[in-house]
Each structure stands twice: as C-alpha cells, then as structure tokens.
Amino acid sequence: MLISTWEWIRLLGFVAYFYFTVSIVFGLLRKSSIENAYKNLFFQLHQSAGWFGFIAVIGHMLFLIVDQYEPYHMTELLIPFISDYQPVLSGLGTIAFYLFLIVFLTSDIWIRKMGFSVWKKVHIAVLPAWVISLVHGILIGSDTKNPFILVFYWSTVTVVVIVFLIRYISEHHKKREKAMKKQPVENS
Ligand code: HEM
C-alpha cells in the first residue's frame, strides 16, 4: 500500500468533510436568487458532492476497522460513545454519520413518499451534521495543528457562513416580494 491505513483514515476524513461542505454550499445556493441561470448545475454539484462525501466517509470508517494501531469494532463505529479511543469525539463522528445518512436516504430514496415540508425539516439536519463533523475533525484529528489544515477549516466555515447569509437574505426578499404582490389583491 502506498500510504498507511492511518493516512487513509485522515485523508478520507478530510475528503468526506470537504465534499459535505461543497454539497451544503451548492444546496444553499440552489434556492438563492443569484442562481437562476445555474439551477441545474448547482443541483448536480449538490447531489454529486453529497455522494462523494458519503463514499469517502464509508472509506474513513472501513479503514478505522482495518487499522492495526487503533482498530475499531463495527459496534464502536455504529453505537456512539462506546469506543475505547476518544469515545466522545468518535461518538460525534458517528452522530454526524447518522445525520448525513438520514438526509442522504430521504433525498434520493424516500423523497417522493414524504411530504415536502417533512422532507425540508429532515434535510435541514445537514447543518448540525456538518457542524458536528467539523468539531469532530478539529478535535480528534492529528492534523489540526498544521497551519494549512487550519486555513482549510477556516475557509470552509467562512464560505458556509457567507452562503448561508446569502440564502437567508434572498429568502427574506422573496417573502417580502410575495407579501407585496398579495397586498393590492387584499386591498381591492
Ligand atoms: C460524517 C462523518 C465523519 C466525518 C466527516 C469525519 C471527518 C474527519 C476529519 C476531517 C478528521 C480529521 C483528520 C485529521 O486531522 O487528520 C477525522 C479524524 C478522525 N475520525 Fe472522523 N469523520 C467522520 C466520522 C467518523 C466516525 C464515525 C469515526 C469513528 C467512530 C471517526 C473516527 C475518526 C478518528 C479516530 C480520527 C482521527 C484520525 C487521526 O488520528 O488523525 N470519524 N474525521
């Protein structure tokens, strides 16, 4: 193997976090007012990045099982807070994984069976999932002291916050426009 299992664990942790971030950014941009021309492209990027992130996190977890130095049992991966190594921080990884899994399954498989408002409420779980995976990565990772990694984490946080604000402001505008369009009808 070109790189050790430990390096694969770290690499795939970053890849998963990166793709989940990309997926969230394009998911938020998709419904903001700046995107009209790119709606389909943003949707494709949002979905593909979610898939890549999910595949990477499965790899991250599989390498934790085959690792020789600090091997995890399947139960330690699947039941939060029971692992020998860093139980709380590993447990946060498991919680983030379940939240992403729920969003992932409801997006692609159950979306037609659920009402839109239920789907939307479930879908919002990506935001806590992303925050939890960020805390997990920063606090458990061996690379957090590396200045490039810190820049990476800060950049992702900055981008997500900016895009979240863009989405929030554009939804606020849309609501106001709708209310203003309704007014003349209500007044007449
Ligand atoms: C959505 C789920 C997850 C994401 C996005 C994620 C992401 C990350 C990231 C970014 C790192 C930092 C790597 C580094 O600094 O080198 C990391 C490290 C780690 N993760 Fe996860 N993780 C997830 C789930 C899990 C789960 C379920 C477990 C185990 C129960 C786990 C165990 C670990 C361990 C042990 C490390 C430390 C590796 C090292 O020594 O640096 N992760 N993870």
Please characterize this protein's 3D structure:
The protein is mainly alpha-helical and 188 residues long. The protein contains seven helices and no strands. Helix 1 packs parallel to helix 7 (147-187) and helix 4 runs antiparallel to helix 6. It is elongated, with a radius of gyration of 19 Å. The mean pLDDT is 91.
Write a concise synopsis of the structure shown.
The protein is mainly alpha-helical. 77% of the residues lie in helices and 0% in strands.
Layout of helices and strands, plus pairs?
Blueprint: H1 5-30, H2 39-66, H3 74-78, H4 87-108, H5 116-123, H6 126-140, H7 147-187
Helix pairs in contact: 1-2, 1-6, 1-7, 2-4, 4-6
**In the CATH scheme, what's the topology name?**
Four Helix Bundle (Hemerythrin (Met), subunit A)
Radius of gyration: 19 Å
Can you tell me the CATH architecture?
Up-down Bundle
How much strand content do the residues show? under 5%
Search tags:
188 residues, mainly alpha, Four Helix Bundle (Hemerythrin (Met), subunit A), 7 helices, binds protoporphyrin IX containing FE
